Amino acid sequence: MTKLLWAVALLAAVTLSGCGYNEFQTRDEQVKAAWAEVLNQYQRRADLVPNLVETVKGYAQQERDVLIGVTEARAKATSVTVTPEQISDPAAMQKFQQAQAQLSGALGRLLVVSENYPQLKSDQNFRDLQAQLEGTENRITTARNRFIKAVQDYNVLARQFPTNLTAMMFGYKEKPAFTVEDEKAISRPPKVDFAPKPAAAPPAAPAQPAPAK
Questions:
Q1: Structure pTM?
Q2: What is the mean pLDDT of residues 148-159?
Q3: DSSP notation for the chain
């Protein structure tokens, strides 16, 4: 009886391995690990924001709307989280992506504003923070690309035959890729015109009636 149980267990192990079950475990863990790194880099960016805002505020307090916009965007971005278990939820992923995109746009506006304050640009603390922010943005891009590749490999496994049968049997659903709507527009700093606008021309005086003769 014991030998029969061992034989059944061995056959089951070979069958599961051949149908891709073990590979699903590996791919799923790779996706989770890649997502954890994405979150880590976004948190690193969020941690830089308070010091960056305070530094800019010291030289450009009049840019109140921009500073408030960054602070509010950071608060929203850090309040929207996606756990590894929620990776397969398209709505949760979209909400997270939109919050991070808003923070990206707000930071872009803040950096554009800084160009108009030479003393701020020369401040060593600001330059260090800007360099850290740029490095973090590069890390975010790398982490996102790795996550996208991990999801792609997982989804291929879930869709191709015969492993798609294993996916259906054990409930391995496709995972949404990390995408941002109009990403090129988001990554491009917005144009801000600080040139003084010409004064509006005074309205023309109404024509006076000709004097009676």
A1: 0.73
A2: 93
A3: -HHHHHHHHHHHHHHHHHTTHHHHHHHHHHHHHHHHHHHHHHHHHHHHHHHHHHHHHHH-TT-HHHHHHHHHHHHHHHH----GGGTT-HHHHHHHHHHHHHHHHHHHHHHHHHTT-HHHHH-HHHHHHHHHHHHHHHHHHHHHHHHHHHHHHHHHHHHSTTHHHHHHHHT---------TTHHHHHSPPP---SPPPPPPPPPPPPPPPPP-
